[in-house]
Amino acid sequence: MADAVDKNYRNLESNIDKLTLNQCSIIKKFDALSKNVDEMRKILAQFSEKMVALEEVASDKRKFKVDIKVLRNRIDELYDIVKEGKEEGSAPSDDVRDVESCHSGFSCSSKVTMTTGLDRDTIRSAYEDVRSDGSPTEWAVFKFDGARIICSARGSDFTEFRTQFSDDERAFGYLRLQMGDEMSKRKKFMFMTWVGPSVSVINRAKMSTDKAIIKDIISNFAVELQLESQSEIDIDQFKDALNRAGGANYGTGIRDL
């Protein structure tokens, strides 16, 4: 009996040792995978810099093509390493998903504008038009025209506003909505970012930078929303968001909005 217990104990110790070794191996693979993810991100950043350099120095096309080819090959190599490491684990980490998305966007996107400019005069004019109490204009939409953001439309009918956003577009909207109750009517302003469901991964990633650029002009609003589906472009949802931002409204319930 004692021999059997001793044998089982030794088997248990052996299994624990094997489990410890496997755990150490997994940790080492994860560390290596994380380093490859970091290197992938650095290379993508280098690629972005090269795109900017191409716009600024058109005469250096031959050297640029060689550099791009080297970067592409290195990205493909790292992607294979990351993918192999992911398949050996039980579940992909967020970093691995990010790398796969970046690789997919990098491979499929043929035209990516890396810098964004503003048509400042038309954007500022539309912004001030929406804010003016004496103007019937209640909304303005800003879209990408090549490498520039321009004012593409403005108006007063919300139904027309909803038609301005396509699934393959990125855009911004600025709205003036009348809020409050019969005792206290007031105008409130909302800034909207639109990223359609068919927008590429890289253009989605650029949106935060491009939004910061246009917000240099469009700076006064009570609520900011990011929308990605047509069903979210809803005036009642907009007003609910503005109400939550500004507190409750008290009155008889009869409103003229």
From TrEMBL:
Keywords: Actin-binding, Coiled coil, Cytoplasm, Cytoskeleton. Pfam families: Cofilin_ADF. InterPro entries: ADF-H, ADF-H/Gelsolin-like_dom_sf. This is Coactosin-like protein. Residues 115-243 form the ADF-H domain. GO terms for molecular function: actin filament binding. It comes from Pararge aegeria aegeria. The gene is jg18534. Belongs to the actin-binding proteins ADF family. Coactosin subfamily. GO terms for cellular component: actin filament; cortical actin cytoskeleton; site of polarized growth. GO terms for biological process: regulation of actin filament polymerization. It comes from the Eukaryota. The keyword Iron-sulfur does not apply.
